[in-house]
Amino acid sequence: xxxxxxGALDSIFVKVLLGLLIAAFAIWGIGPGMxxxxxxxxxxxxxxxxxxxxxxxxxxxxxxxxxxxxGGQMSTEEIIKLMNLDYQVLNxxxxxxxxxxxxxxMGLRATEVQLAKEIRTFEAFQAPxxxxxxxxxxxxxxxxxxxxxxxxxxxxRGIARNQLMGSMGARTLLPRALxxxxxxxxAERRRAAMINFSASDITNIAEPTTEExxxxxxxxxxxxxxxxxxxxxxIMLTPAQFTDKVELIEDDITAAYESRRDEFVKPETRxxxxxxxxxxxxxxxxxxxxxxxxxxxxxxxxxTAFTKEEIALGANSYDDVSTGFDSDAAExxxxxxxxxxxxxxxxxxxxxxxxxxxxxxxxxxxxxxxRAEIETTLREEQAVDLMFDYLPELEDAIAEDGALTxxxxxxxxxxxxxxxxxxxxxxxxxxxVVTQQNxxxxxxxxxxxxxxxxxxxxxxxxxxxxxxxxxxxLSEVQxxxxxxxxxxxxxxxxxxxxxxxxxxxxxxxxxxxTRLIAGEDAETVADELGGTSFDAKNVSRTAEGTSGLSQNxxxxxxxLPIGEVDAERAADGNGYVVVRVDSVxxxxxxxxxxxxxxxxDQLVExxxxxxxxxxxxxxLDLYEPEVHRNIVEQLFxxxxxx
Length: 642
Description:
- The protein is of the alpha+beta class.
- Helix content is 52%, strand content 16%.
- It is built from 27 helices and 17 strands.
């Protein structure tokens, strides 16, 4: 890179540009914040600085990692804004700086010997024989976007932090007996006899009289109100309304094809197996072994430190091999037939042997064959730009007229009208009027508005303003009104019958409880009272697998002592469940040491995390960080967002 920079400085253009800059500095002067001061640090904790450059690199690095996890569907800029990644990273770095400051005050630091030892433990920095490889380290750091100084700094902080956290001694503060006691409670299992009485199965409910229904209606009149209904108008603009106005030229199509060449032109790929040896002789011996009939991956796993999974490299193109290894390896690999092996190839990791385990031919979609798809994509992209270009005209019209009807007439826009719907998008006849997601978004806004409010531009999707905008204007609100008994008599009858069935199920459950307490068999009681009995075996405190027990019934089983009986309303509100606890088996720590150990490790980890959070809060209060949020805004926020 230095050679490239040195060469660039020799160009006349750069010399002229530098001359202009020097002249500008001579006239206007160089401000104190341009080359030094606050622009170099995004935060300061005591005497510890958080470098602006290191912060920016960390944000971009994490954004790229997340971009890969999301399959490249979002840009790094979108990820940073959506997840507030810049402030997440900043908060973490400020916290790290506070810890570093405290460690400095206490004299904690990592020695060079500790640093070297830690570096040698990284598998990515090791050659196939397990020895440390400076070349492998350089390659791994370059791939991860890390510099050596960043690595060394992070490792030193990590080593010192481990010393610090080790001194807090979470394991000495938490006795293992605590995990054993918790395991006894947590691993407890119970067996219970259960009878379910469903209200919906009770059909011998007497028909209610008109007087009973009237009384039921009078007691619950608030239940039988009409819903609030609203009427509103709205204008909606989406990119789809502008696609017909997009004018494409051939240069646009060609440029789009070239930018997506990787999508349309697929190179030949080969599934590869690869192992490396310290010497050529060992590589040749391996080849002889495979040619004698031994499986390549099996032989490689037996004679090297590679596992079978590491030996299988998957599908690789010529460029993949050339980049990951070198051009000689790529030439050798792509000269092979399917199933063949290369001779030993010397590289920085030793002597490698490759085998081709399948070939996928390359393919090419010509620009003519891709034209329809490219044109569709370009129209969609440019339609978004046309929509944004149109918005100022729409906003000016709203500012001038203040209402949607004259705006729609002036700009020849479609004005949608929705009349008398409830909050579920249904009209008075119960028909679903609002059916599309965009319409539902507008309806939600209409139910938040008050009449007389001037419409404003809203994004259809606040997370993605490219999906379009809308303006909604509330025209009428119909307040809820009391429905007459005659109009809702059938609904009242159904509600009365359901409540009566539930009450009757409760009475039967009480009778079942009495009989179970008296010692009767649960199955007999269920048969005679019209319930369903079943034996719940090995019930745990928390749901496991496909357990059919609801949480309230499970809670009841664990609340009752052995032999006691009680009932609980069914989780779905349909009847009651009667429970008798028949046996209790406590957890046995002595026979489940591995489970207790895992629980203890979990408790220690949780305690350590809570302790660390308290420690961080203490340090931030102690050192009172100075954070330059304006720098963060300048780095990762647009002018409009600021």
